[in-house]
Amino acid sequence: MTEGKTQATERPAGASLPGQTRRTVSGQGSASGGDRSDLVTPNGRTKIADAVVAKVAGMAAREIGGVHDMGAGVSRTIGSVKERLPGGMGGGQSSSQGVSVQVGERQAAIDIDLIVEYGASIPELAAAVRDNVIEEVEHMCGLDVVEVNIDVADIHLPGEEAREDSQPSEPRVR
Asked: What is the pTM for the complete model shown?
């Protein structure tokens, strides 16, 4: 190698540069809540946006079998209209649809509107959703989840969408 030029060496993605210490995030968090002092340190404060917490909670809720959809009334109607817009203008289903959160420096409170599949045990489903949401939000965001309120807004019956799509679109009045 000639002087003045540096030779490029391949390094695995995420590897630290020579002389640097690489910090990693351990996947070991306190599932019981505990002191989440890692968000407020002497070196600074980490603020997590409400939208981030809502997306994490929404994804965690959708992971549970028996959850058909999320949202109630107007938010579900608007979401379905946005999904049908031509040219991808709707952007698909929002992962935070049916979720509202309040986020403080170290705590979060979450409200979720669910549509459950017919036949699912609602108390068991609510408990599973609640547990998964708490686990994921505490793990990913480092916030203590003080409550997860679940509102079962509707129940999805088998074949329900097929009936809605098969109805004629002719006007009732001519």
From this structure: 0.66
Over its length of 174 residues, how does the chain's per-residue pLDDT go in tens digits? 444 444 444 444 444 444 433 333 444 333 444 444 478 889 998 889 999 999 999 999 999 999 999 998 654 455 555 455 565 554 455 889 999 999 998 999 999 999 999 999 999 999 999 999 999 999 999 999 999 999 999 999 988 775 555 555 667 677
**Residues 110 and 133 sit within 8 Å (Cβ to Cβ):** yes
Q: What is the 3-state secondary structure (H, E, C) of 38-83?
A: HHEECCEECCCCHHHHHHHHHHHHHCCCCEEEECCHHHHHHHHHHH
- CB count within 10 Å of CB 61 equals 26
